[in-house]
Structures are given as C-alpha cells and as structure tokens.
Design goal:
Layout (H helix, E strand, L loop, with lengths): L4 E7 L16 E2 L2 E2 H11 L4 E6 L3 H7 L6 E4 L6 H8 L8 E6 L7 H10 L5 E6 L8 E4 L5 E5 L6 H4 L3 E10 H9 L14 H8 L5 E5 L11 H21 L3 E2 L5 E3 L2 E4 L4 E2 L3 E4 L1 E4 L4 E2 L4 E3 L2 E2 L4 E2 L4 E3 L1 E3 L4 E2 L3 E3 L3 E3 L4 E13 L4 E13 L4 E2 L4 E3 L9 E3 L4 E2 L4 E3 L2 E3 L4 E2 L4 E2 L8 E2 L20
Parallel strand pairs: 1-4, 1-6, 4-5, 7-11, 12-15, 13-16, 14-17, 15-18, 16-19, 17-20, 18-21, 19-22, 20-23, 21-24, 22-25, 23-26, 24-27, 25-27, 26-27, 27-28, 28-29, 28-31, 29-32, 30-33, 31-34, 32-35, 33-36, 35-37
Antiparallel strand pairs: 2-3, 6-10, 7-10, 8-9
The structure holds uridine-diphosphate-N-acetylglucosamine (UD1) and calcium ion.
C-alpha cells in the first residue's frame, strides 16, 4: 500500500533578487501568486496535508491564502532550505512520504510529481533537469558509473562543476522518517552559510541509501523565479502555451505573444481574438465571438456571434447573442445585455439591463437602470442614479426614445413608447406615448449685435 502523502512548500525567503518589498511568492504569474500555482498543483495530488513554510512577509502570505486548507509554519530566520523543511517536518506523520516543493517554482506539473512520489516510498527521489543555461541552479554531480553523488550549489561549485548542465529542480520526495534523520546531519559549512536541503541527497548516498534521480526534459516546468526578468520570461512562456492550446482547439489568436489569460477562458468554435487582449477570472466566449484589439474582459459571458470592438473594458457582464460592443465601451458589474443589443463608444453601464435590440451607441452613463427592448438611448444621456447618499433606479420600457444630452434623475420611469426631447432634465415619470420636454424654450433675439473690438 502506498504511504500517505504530505507536501511541504517552502515560501519563507524574501527573494532579495526581486528587489521588491512584496514577498517573492506573492508576485503574480498569469494573475495568480506564484505560491498559489504550487498549492493548486500540490492539491491535485490529493495529499493528507499541505504545509507552507513562511517567514519574510509571513503575515501577508497567510492573509493572501486565507480560507484555504493549509498548515502554516513560521521559519523565523531564513537559514536555508534544509532548515525550512525542518520547520514543518515535525508536524508530518512519521510514516508518510514527504514531497518538498518550492514556492518560487510555479509551473511544475502534477503528472511529473506523481511519478516522483511513487518512487519515494523507501528512498529519496529528486527531480533534475538538463538546461542549456544552468546558471543559478544547484548542479548534479555523478560518479564515473553515472550514479548520483551530490548536489553542489552554484556558490560552492568549482569551475568544472559549474559547467555541468544537469541541475536540481528543487523538487524532492522522501519518506518522512528518513528525511528527518538525514536533515539532522546537514551542516551550514558552505559558501552561503545555509543549511541546504539538497545536501540530504549527498548524505544519503554516503550512507549507502540509493538516491533516485528523475530527469525531466521539460525545462519549462522547473523554471524558478528569482528576479523580475525570469518572472516575465516565465509569464510569456506560459501565455504562449495557453495561446497554442487555444489555437489547437480552433480559436484564431492573432498573436501568441500578445495575449494574456489570467484566469479561465472557455471558447466556442470560430472565436477570433485580436492582439493585446487580457482575460481575467472566468470568461466564456460563445461560437463566432470576435474580440477586438486591446480589450480587457473579466468575469464575463459573451454569447455567440457577438462582436466586441477594440478598446473595451468589460467586467462582471453577461452579453447575449449578436450584440455589438464598443469600440471604447465600459461594461461594469451587473451589466446584462439581451440579444442584438448595442453599446457603443464611450458608454459606461453599471447594474444595467438591456432588452433585445436596445441601443446606446455613443457617450452615455447608465447606472442602476433597466432598459426594455428596442429602446434607443441618445448620445450624452446620463442617469443621475446617486444623490450623494443613496442609489436610485431608472426604468425604461420597450420602444422608448431618449433624445441626446438628456439627464434622467432617478428614481424615474419612462414607460413603453415614452419619448424624451433632446437636452431634457427628466425628473418626473413619463407615461407611454408621452413626449417629455424638460428644458428652457429657445429664444431668438433679433437685431442683436456682436461685441466688437475697440480700435485705439
Ligand atoms: C534552490 C536549490 C538549488 C536548485 C534551485 C531550483 C537549495 C540550497 N538550492 O536554489 O539546488 O537548483 O533551488 O530552483 O535548496 N526558502 C525558505 N527558507 C530559507 C531559504 C529558502 O523557505 O531559509 C524558500 C524560498 O522562499 C524559495 C525556495 O525556498 O521559495 C528556494 O530558495 P532559493 O533561495 O530561491 O533557492 P535557490 O538559490 O534558487
Ligand atoms: Ca529559487
């Protein structure tokens, strides 16, 4: 029977090379903290417990992860990765297998880890990788027979050792009791004065315990983030992978280098995504949806055939079929558009429902408003939904016409077929088929002379 699995994630380091006050593991990759990626992967392995070792910025790390089932351990001083594991290990069951992950190696795949755990029932297993540029990583030393000897850190490596391209990914699995006794022998007599976790592997070998080295060919998975350049590189790699997956599923992505998916994106067939579009949260695009250049879509559902033109910002919106949005439209949370509705340039909606075929084509603010079907809202229409204390509702029926530059002072109701003359300030309800004119009458002054410049 396989032993019970516990995961220890190391996240106590400051990440000095990030040159930031934010703890390294809270820097985001694809919109999520680095550490969250690691936690999600760990969770997929079904461990009995996930331990997170925190230190620098520990409070903010814990706060960011609050509400998740995690056991935190504080490493007061960052004395090295070996010491960090020692902070959590006593809380693990002696007869479990412990998997150690680094909070700054975010893209390691659950399938890779699964293979490691299987081999670690009675001996340590480490994950190595071959890199073209091994700088910064611990190197894997092997003897003439090709058997594992030890890991040497970059700072401690001799010139010839530094040429080795097989590196330690940082991922390691071992029986908890074995790991515990090996850790006791780790010293900090090295270039950085730290207790190195990978030293347990060299010690195991010295004690005649076979160490299994699994070499992954996918360097992408094991990339660590130590500075902002590496973070950016990893972000692009990940986004390109996501773009490729979309294209493989039939989504026309204009440029794999210029798309950012920071949440979950689900697409129907014949979806077209132009350059520089950012997706956040949960986004669903129906068949044939087109997203123009430079849009940001967060938590939106867009039904089939809808055209989102360039430079739109959509958040918390539900959009029907065959609608046309933008360019330059802003749909804020609670915006719901029925089929064939149109929201054009410089129109902002919030908590607003549009019926079938209704339009606000230019320059409007609609807040806390319900719009029936086939209603036309003219340019410059503003709902005054806020009196400084409370929010009020504007309600428009079907077939309403609101003339340009009208101000609708909520609460107010325009019934089916109501008509508002351009430039009106509407403070009273308008019944069906009524015309509301809420403006001063035009006066023309005859024989009026323009002021003239005095000549001196
Ligand atoms: C580490 C490995 C190196 C490996 C590389 C892979 C050691 C000594 N070296 O080097 O062999 O090639 O990862 O990415 O393990 N941490 C703590 N407490 C500490 C020190 C570190 O929690 O006292 C955490 C950090 O927050 C980080 C992780 O451990 O998430 C790795 O630490 P880092 O200093 O980045 O190690 P590397 O120098 O990258
Ligand atoms: Ca690192």
């Amino acid at each position: 029977m396989e032993k019970n699995l516990e995961v220890i994630i190391l996240a106590a380091g400051r990440g000095t090379r990030m040159r930031s006050t934010l703890p390294k593991v809270l820097h985001t990759l694809a919109g999520q903290p680095l550490l969250q990626h690691v936690i999600d992967t760990a969770r997929a392995l079904g461990p009995s417990q996930i331990h997170v070792v925190v230190g620098y910025g520990g409070d903010s790390v814990q706060k960011t992860l609050s509400g998740q089932e995690l056991k935190f351990h504080t490493q007061k001083e960052q004395l090295g990765t070996g010491h960090a594991v020692g902070c959590a290990l006593p809380a693990c069951q002696r007869n479990s297998v412990v998997l150690v992950l680094f909070g700054d190696v975010p893209l390691i795949a659950a399938s890779t880890l699964q293979a490691l755990i299987g081999g670690a029932q009675h001996k340590p297993v480490m994950l190595a990788a071959r890199l073209v540029d091994p700088r910064g990583y611990g190197r894997v030393l092997r003897d003439e027979a090709g058997d594992f000897v030890a890991v040497v850190e970059q700072a401690d490596a001799s010139e010839s050792e530094a040429l080795i391209c097989e590196v330690n990914t940082g991922v390691l699995a071992a029986p908890a009791d074995q790991l515990g006794s090996l850790l006791k022998s780790v010293s900090n007599d090295n270039a950085q004065g730290e207790y190195y976790l990978p030293d347990v592997l060299g010690l195991a070998r010295q004690q005649g315990i076979a160490v299994e080295v699994v070499v992954t060919e996918d360097a992408f998975e094991m990339c660590g983030v130590n500075d902002l350049v590496q973070l950016q590189e990893l972000e692009r790699l990940l986004q390109c992978k996501r773009a490729d997956a979309l294209m493989a599923a039939g989504v026309a992505v204009a440029d794999r280098q210029r798309i950012d998916i920071r949440g979950d994106l689900e697409c129907g067939v014949d979806v077209v995504i132009d350059i520089n579009v950012v997706f956040e949260g949960q986004v669903r695009l129906g068949d044939g949806v087109r997203v123009g250049a430079h849009c940001v879509l967060k938590d939106v559902v867009v039904s089939s055939g809808t055209d989102i033109q360039p430079f739109c910002h959509l958040e918390g919106a539900v959009i029907g079929e065959q609608c046309r949005i933008g360019p330059y439209a802003r749909l804020r949370p609670g915006s719901v558009l029925a089929d064939t509705a149109r929201v054009g340039n410089f129109v902002e909606t919030k908590n607003t429902t549009f019926g079938v075929g209704s339009k606000a084509n230019h320059l409007a603010y609609l807040g806390d408003t319900t719009v029936g079907s086939d209603t036309n809202i003219g340019a410059g229409t503003i709902t005054c939904n806020y009196d400084g204390v409370d929010k009020h509702k504007t309600s428009m029926g079907d077939g309403v016409f609101v003339g340009s530059n009208s101000t609708l002072v909520a609460p107010v109701t325009l019934s089916d077929g109501a008509f508002v003359a351009a430039g009106s300030v509407v403070t009273n309800d308008v019944a069906g088929e009524e015309l509301a004119v809420g403006r001063a009458r035009q006066r023309n002054i005859a024989d009026w002379r323009r002021p003239k410049k005095k000549k001196d």
